[in-house]
Each structure stands twice: as structure tokens, then as C-alpha cells.
Amino acid sequence: MIRRILLPAGNFVRPAIGDRRRRFFVASVLALAAHPRAVWACAACYGQSDSPMAQGMNWGIFSLLAVVVFVLSGVAGFFVYLARRASDLHRPT
């Protein structure tokens, strides 16, 4: 919107989305090449599997798994509730 106001008519040029993605990819590769230590695996994935970092990662994985199971069981329980309520409506009294 601002470009349309500031630039004269016909001079509005917007880079293609593929060009943006390519620029981001090249910038990411150059950033990782400049700092190769950032690409190395951590102690949880490579090396000491009994380190505090690995234990913390395992607890994080288990807690996220518990949250996912809790939410999915709530959704499933809601659909069971709806199914039972719908079957009660069609039951003769």
C-alpha cells in the first residue's frame, strides 16, 4: 500500500515468492557455513545419553506427549458424548 503511494504508477515491482524463498535459503546456508558449530548435534542426540541435557530433553518429550494425549482424549470424549446424546434422542421412551 505504501509503495503504491510513494512510487509512481507502473513502477510497482514485487519480487516473486520463489525469489524470496531462494534468498532465504541462500542466507540460511551462508549463516550455517559461517558458524559450523551451530550445526553439530547436542549431547542429547550425540554423545552422553545420561547427561542432564538429555534427561531434560526426555522429560520435555514425555510432557509434550502427555499434553497431546490429554487433548486428543478430550476431543474423543466429546465425540463420544455427542454420539450418546444423539442416540438418546432417537430412543423411544
Itemize the secondary structure elements and their pairings.
Layout: H1 2-6, H2 17-34, H3 52-89
Report on the structure:
The protein has 93 residues and is an all-alpha fold. Helices cover 66% and strands 0% of the residues. It has helices at 2-6, 17-34, 52-89. The radius of gyration is 27 Å and the shape is flat.
Number of strands: 0
Mean pLDDT: 78
How many domains would you count in the coordinates?
2
Number of H- or I-type helical stretches: 3
The helix/strand series, from N terminus to C terminus, equals HHH
Largest sheet: none
Determine the N-to-C terminus distance.
64 Å
Which structural class fits the helix and strand makeup?
A: mainly alpha
Strand content: under 5%
Oligomer: single chain
How much helix, percentage-wise, in residues?
55-70%
Rg is: 27 Å
Shape: flat
Poorly predicted runs are none
Can you summarize this structure?
By secondary structure, the chain is mainly alpha-helical. About 65% of the residues lie in helices and about 0% in strands.
Keywords for this structure?
2 domains, 93 residues, single chain, mainly alpha, 3 helices
